[in-house]
Automatic annotation (TrEMBL):
UniProt-recorded name of the protein: Uncharacterized protein
Comp. bias (Low complexity): 131-151
Organism: Chlamydomonas schloesseri
InterPro entries to which the protein is assigned, alphabetical: Hist_DNA-bd (IPR000119), Histone-like_DNA-bd_CS (IPR020816), IHF-like_DNA-bd_dom_sf (IPR010992)
PROSITE patterns xref list: HISTONE_LIKE
GO MF assignments: DNA binding; structural constituent of chromatin
Region (Disordered): 130-168
A matching Pfam family: Bac_DNA_binding
Family statement: Belongs to the bacterial histone-like protein family.
Keywords recorded for this protein, A-Z: DNA-binding
Compositionally biased spans, kind Pro residues: 152-168
């Protein structure tokens, strides 16, 4: 404990400990993949590049999408985007809780909260469990002129029935 305390008597030691901690923190950070935070601006950039739109039009499209989802969820509707997930409202029941500072029992009222559930395919993709993507149904080839249907085989000549036995 003396090594990590900051006082005048232990100052050089704490400086060394701080450097060691900083080196450990940097080493741990280097082990983790970089966490790029994607916000609205980056998403608008991607939309504009992928769809060949200006950033202004892409921003309007993004805002319209988010606004539409918000409006539908506020009305109590479920919004499902296939392959991505479902937005919905979940109702929380009234319950008892405790005030953390006093420990007194308090009543927490019922409420509604927005919720999102990711699709199974997206969860699998995140966890690296994706199977080969399903092949899209092949487009039907253009109607080529059909070859003449094969002619049915000629009927076989009637075979004579059983030979009559001796006359009695």
């Amino acid at each position: 404990m003396a090594l990590l305390m900051r006082s005048q008597t232990v100052r050089p030691v704490s400086a060394v400990a701080s450097r060691r901690v900083a080196v450990v923190v940097r080493a741990q950070a280097a082990d983790k993949p970089s966490t790029n935070i994607t916000g609205k601006a980056k998403l608008v950039d991607v939309i504009s590049q992928e769809a060949g739109l200006t950033k202004e039009v892409a921003a309007k499209a993004f805002d319209a999408l988010i606004g539409g989802i918000e409006d539908a969820v506020i009305k109590g509707e479920r919004v499902t985007i296939v392959g991505f997930g479902t937005f919905e409202v979940r109702e929380r029941k009234a319950r008892q809780g405790r005030n953390p500072s006093t420990g007194a029992v308090i009543q927490i009222p019922a409420s509604k909260a927005p919720a999102f559930k990711a699709s199974a395919g997206w969860k699998d993709a995140i966890n690296g469990k994706t199977a080969a993507p399903k092949a899209a149904p092949a487009a039907k080839p253009a109607a080529a002129p059909k070859a003449a249907a094969p002619k049915p085989a000629a009927p076989k000549p009637a075979q004579p029935g059983p030979k009559p036995g001796p006359k009695k």
